[in-house]
Design a protein that fits this description.
The complex is a heterodimer. Chain A is of the alpha+beta class. Chain A contains 15 helices and 25 strands. The mean pLDDT of chain B is 88. Classes of the chains: A alpha+beta, B mainly alpha.
């Protein structure tokens, strides 16, 4: 189970094996449901949900310590709210860091990737100067736990430390993309008053993208406490004007953040603006406990509970804990979903897909057997999509717990940017249709054999440019062995392809090797070693542009997809004022099929699983639903007795 | 004896250097830099280049190797860029837990397997022998994961006699006295080891029973108890000494499957996670320490053999 997920909301992020590409899931209690109803209350009728989230208990609320399962290899390894590339994960950021240091904006509302204004530290930004100036105001309700107000100075403090960090190394801030967003596209920053921050940008940007991808990553820091370069040192006040001093402060804070064993005892980390303070941390396991921050200014349960993250070394061990009833909030690994009915008397259960996509990557640069000229034909990609049986995979491999995905924006969760063709499969499973498409484009279809190009040329009914007569529809596909559902899907797809004469030669690998070696930008020497690969997938940020993945110059454009129209649309998503730009981008990519988009399994705690929680624990429905999106909101939870 | 040990130590140093070079070269052949594994597939080239520079992966690999060895000589096992801790601290936090689990299981297995093997040899082809053989084969053939799951289901989830997980305490003393938590993992490992060791012991004891000195001892009228204790047991145990010596590295290696199944943080799991994260320094340190313990285990076994059997001469 390999988990290479990184924090959502930090631009498009890698989901990896455990999440999007993994899975299983069945529906003993409603899996694979298709009832469609508003999900705003999160409790009933969500499209594709597994189980359900009951309404919040109406009786008295009781405090206590709520135990919450932490999946294997999920120990937080960083605490400074400026996460490094190496330490970035959903367990270090949303689960751990965000409990103490809130981001300016909170972008997960239950299962939906939309903002929760009440949980955002600042009011929504306003734009001026032709989308070149952005201004936001901090809310007065939020304060530091030592009673000091949260001010614009704290945002500026974060900003100047970020500049110092990035000057040392671009790897010092995980969301950083050179030349894009914060900080490179910000010409100047100022604080007109104690609650207002203004940024002047170097050029006009898409306001929604900048808000959700860039401003959403800002985490104010308590400048009145952290403006030191040594323990017990004097305050350094010129960090805004003296980069050397900003560097000293950053270096000191980063060094403290590396001291994992002192997380719970270092006074620095006890000044927070989030709902919790860290009270214990075990470096060897990553176990930690957090207690409520009485000064927290955001919404929370009437009676606040502490919560304890309980690490497990395997999914099997975690499931044993659930069966033993020793954990309040945990998960059922998707492979164990058939056993979930046995928990019905003591646990609530809920499953929902993560917001992202799983996919088989096509290598548009592989010249072996003229594959590059084959795969750049839209009709070929459409035929391949018709050979994928997504409902069948969800039923057979996910046990019903998953959602379909036809493009970079999945069918579920619902997003404001979901295009129409993400809701109805534009290329539904139909081998007969795939065969017809091939025949109509000059291929001799040999069921269970290997198709060949019979009509070379670029005219109607011919194979297309660069495909000589006799070219075979045969190539290799490399897939990740973990989780097993990746292989199950690829094997079935290859089997279906064979029925229409497409030969896929399958081989296995592992995630690390694949993303390092079957990767056109980072490993050009192996460009002809692979035609297709399935390593997992990506989690979208709230604003689901595929910038970096499907634009021709994207650093994660693993298969070298190169389409001027896609480039234009993707660029528009981040630079045009059009609020619908990212929808247009997703619609085009769904139609163009730059890769084979696959169904997504249900997710909990950043791993392929069904969420379960004891019936003695309650809270707002959204606070449980958000765990399927790898966002933790324990401040809403309480015991009912 | 002293000369022999010194020679073995000298040879071991050469072997260790060879192992370190081989492992280092192998890791670099597979992953010249783990940057993209650590930073994720979305990492851009600037991020990767900066990370490589930060962590010394932009140097030629031979330079990296020499740098690593230089630190190693000074007792610095490196830093885990993924876990944000020194490798020494990471190992220090869990090695005793793994050693305790493996060590207790090993001792118990030896204490059970040796008399069991002798019993089976002496009473070979009896009902007792058949039952013990059948049980040993069953357990030996059973995947440790499956055996552990059965024990958890029966003794933890159904009967509630023991905990479904090993001790979660970070204090070794608490681990040692946590019978509720540690019984099932220890039993799981012990059963598997007994199944293996008892078969060796049975074969060895049967060989010894056929030796002339056993017949002479019996012919002299020596009580059977003394025949078994004085003549059979000591000689039959000689192959076990080698086996036990070879088991010493497991004190470090931990038992990955048992540790993960029983939610028991140990070295095995640390290594497994490091593999998934391409965490070079943890992998290197673990492999090197494993090599050291393998060499020590062999050395201890050889020396123990000379003590157990004076006929063996060390050149």
């Amino acid at each position: 189970m390999m988990r290479k997920r990184v924090a959502g909301g930090l631009a498009l992020v890698l989901a990896g094996v455990t999440a999007l590409a993994a899975c299983s899931g069945g529906s003993s209690s409603g899996g694979g449901g298709t009832s469609s109803a508003p999900g705003s209350n999160g409790s009933i009728g969500l499209l594709g949900q597994f189980g359900h989230v009951p309404a919040m208990a109406a009786g008295p609320e009781h405090a206590g310590t709520i135990t919450v399962a932490a999946p294997p290899d999920s120990a937080p390894t960083w605490i400074l709210p400026m996460v490094t590339g190496a330490t970035n994960s959903v367990y270090t950021v949303p689960e751990f860091d965000y409990q103490m240091y809130r981001p300016l904006y909170w972008f997960v509302n239950g299962v939906e990737p939309t903002e929760v204004p009440a949980m955002s530290l600042a009011s929504d930004p306003t734009w001026s100067n032709g989308d070149k100036t952005v201004t936001f105001t901090l809310k007065s309700a939020y304060k530091w736990s030592d009673g000091q107000p949260l001010t614009s100075k704290d945002v500026l403090f974060w900003w100047y430390l970020l500049k110092a960090a990035l000057k040392e190394s671009p790897a010092n801030w995980a969301p950083y993309t050179p030349g894009l967003g914060i900080p490179d596209e910000v010409a100047s920053i100022s604080a007109p008053n104690s609650s207002t921050v203004t940024m002047n940008l170097t050029k006009a940007v898409n306001p929604t993208w900048f808000w959700q991808d860039s401003l959403g990553s800002v985490q104010p820091m308590p400048s009145h406490v952290w403006d030191i370069d040594a323990t017990g040192g004097k305050a350094i006040t010129d960090w805004a004007t003296n980069p050397a001093d900003a560097k000293k402060i950053y270096d000191y804070l980063a060094a403290q953040s590396k001291s994992v064993s002192t997380y719970a005892t270092n006074p620095l980390w006890q000044v927070v603006d989030g709902p919790y303070k860290l009270t214990s941390f075990t470096p060897s396991t990553g176990a930690f406990t957090m207690a409520p921050n009485p000064a927290y200014g955001g919404p929370h349960a009437k009676v606040e509970s502490s919560w304890q993250s309980v690490p497990f070394q395997s999914d099997a061990a975690e499931f044993n804990a659930v069966k033993a009833g020793s954990i309040d909030i945990g998960y059922v690994p998707l492979t164990d979903v058939p056993q979930i009915a046995s928990l019905a008397s003591s646990y609530n259960e809920f499953g929902y897909s993560d917001f992202g996509w799983s996919y088989v990557t096509y290598n548009f640069k592989d010249t072996t057997g003229d594959f590059n000229n084959i795969i750049d034909k839209l009709y070929i990609r459409q035929a391949l999509a018709h050979l994928e049986n997504e409902p069948g995979y969800i039923k057979a491999f996910f046990y019903g717990a998953g959602g379909q995905g036809f493009g970079p924006i999945p069918e579920i969760p619902k997003s404001p940017y979901t295009p129409p063709n993400a809701l109805t499969n534009p290329y539904p499973y139909s081998p007969a249709t795939a065969a017809s498409i091939l025949k109509a484009n000059g291929w001799t279809v040999v069921p269970n054999g290997t198709d060949t190009c019979a009509k070379p040329g670029t005219g109607t009914g011919e194979c297309g440019a660069g495909i000589p007569a006799g070219t075979k529809l045969e190539w290799n596909v490399i897939y990740n062995t973990s989780p097993a559902v990746i292989g199950e899907q690829v094997q079935d797809w290859a089997s279906q392809a064979k029925t229409v004469g497409i030969t896929m030669n399958l081989s296995t690998s592992n995630f690390n090797y694949m993303i390092a070696n079957y990767n056109d930008p980072s490993s050009p020497k192996t460009v002809n070693k692979w035609a297709m690969e399935d390593f997992g997938g990506f989690t979208n940020s709230t604003y689901p542009t595929t910038f970096g993945v499907f634009n021709s110059a994207g650093s994660s454009n693993v298969g070298g997809y190169d389409d001027p129209q896609a480039d234009k649309l993707i660029t528009a998503s981040i630079s045009s004022p059009n609020p619908d730009a990212v929808t247009a981008e997703a619609q085009y990519l769904t139609q163009q099929q730059p890769s084979l988009f696959q169904p997504n399994p249900d997710d909990a705690f950043g791993t392929a699983a069904i969420l379960v929680w004891k019936k003695s624990v309650s809270g707002t429905p959204q606070s449980f639903e958000s765990l399927t999106q790898a966002y933790w909101n324990p401040e809403y939870w309480f015991f009912t007795k | 004896m002293v000369g022999y040990i010194l020679r073995r130590i000298g040879t071991s140093v050469v072997v260790l250097i060879g192992v370190s070079f081989f492992i280092f070269a192998l890791l670099h052949a597979i992953y010249p830099s783990p940057a993209i594994d650590v930073l994720g597939a979305r990492a851009n080239s600037a991020l990767i280049a900066a990370w490589n520079k930060q962590n010394g992966f932009d140097d030629p690999w031979l330079v990296q190797y020499l740098h690593y060895m230089g630190n190693l000589v000074r007792g610095n096992l490196g830093y885990s860029y993924k876990l944000n801790q020194s490798v020494t601290a990471l190992f220090g936090g869990v090695w005793a837990r793994s050693a305790w689990l493996s060590g207790v299981s090993l001792v118990l297995a030896v204490l059970i397997a040796i008399p069991l093997g002798v019993y089976q040899a002496v009473r070979r082809n009896t009902v007792g022998d058949y039952v013990a053989t059948g049980m040993a084969f069953s357990v030996y053939a059973m995947p440790v994961f499956f055996l552990g799951l059965i024990l958890i289901q029966v003794f933890a989830l159904d009967l509630h006699w023991f905990s479904f997980q090993g001790s979660q305490s970070s204090s070794l003393l608490s681990v040692v006295v946590d019978f509720h938590g540690m019984t099932l993992p220890v039993v799981t490992l012990t059963l598997l080891t007994v199944a293996s060791f008892s078969r060796y012991m049975r074969s060895s004891a049967m060989d010894v029973l056929a030796q002339d000195y056993i017949k002479v001892a019996r012919a002299k009228g020596l009580p059977e108890r003394l025949v078994l204790m004085r003549h059979l047991l000591r000689n039959a145990c000689l192959p076990m000494v080698t086996l036990i010596g070879l088991s010493i590295p497991t004190l470090l290696a931990g038992n990955l499957i048992t540790e993960t199944l029983f939610n028991y943080r140990g070295l095995g799991l640390l290594f497994y996670d490091a593999l998934g994260n391409a965490d070079y320094n943890v992998l290197l340190a673990y492999t090197l320490i494993g090599a050291v313990l393998t060499i020590i285990g062999n050395l201890v076994a050889d020396v123990a053999l000379t003590v157990a059997d004076p006929r063996i001469r060390l050149a």
